[in-house]
Amino acid sequence: MSGDVDQALGFLAEDVVCDAPAGRIEGLAAYRGFLEGFLPKLTGSSITKVLGDDTSAAVVYTTDTTFARDFRAMDYLTVGDGRITRVVTVFDRLPAAQARPRAEG
């Protein structure tokens, strides 16, 4: 976990689309904004399982953040021309919602 936004963005297509519980993110610039907002809150992560083939992968992982620990998620990635073109992120928003009152506290 390097926290290097430019390195992470190097894997994505310019027109990447991400569908996540908070809504759709379209394009590399918008995804950069998401990463720059999230990465400073990330304190740890571990990959549980990766399943994939030549055009897609499913990554199951757990993250620890400044607001919630043991935050489980899954990304389904679609790849084209050597870059990630689509990300579908699935996670339970309840841990973040439960942590919000404590953080505002």
Question: How does this structure look, described?
Answer:
The chain is 26% helix and 50% strand. The protein is of the alpha+beta class and 105 residues long. A hairpin with a 2-residue loop joins strand 5 and strand 6 (83-91). The mean pLDDT is 89. The protein has one domain (5-93): Nuclear Transport Factor 2, Chain: A (Roll). The longest helix has 11 residues, at 28-38. Strands 2-1-6-5-4-3 form a 6-stranded mixed beta sheet, covered by helices on one side. The chain has helices at residues 5-9, 28-38, 94-104; strands at residues 12-20, 23-26, 42-52, 56-65, 71-80, 83-91.
Topology:
Elements: H1 5-9, E1 12-20, E2 23-26, H2 28-38, E3 42-52, E4 56-65, E5 71-80, E6 83-91, H3 94-104
Parallel strand pairs: 1-6
Antiparallel strand pairs: 1-2, 3-4, 4-5, 5-6
Protein name: Nuclear transport factor 2 family protein
Pfam families: SnoaL_2 (PF12680)
InterPro entries: NTF2-like_dom_sf, SnoaL-like
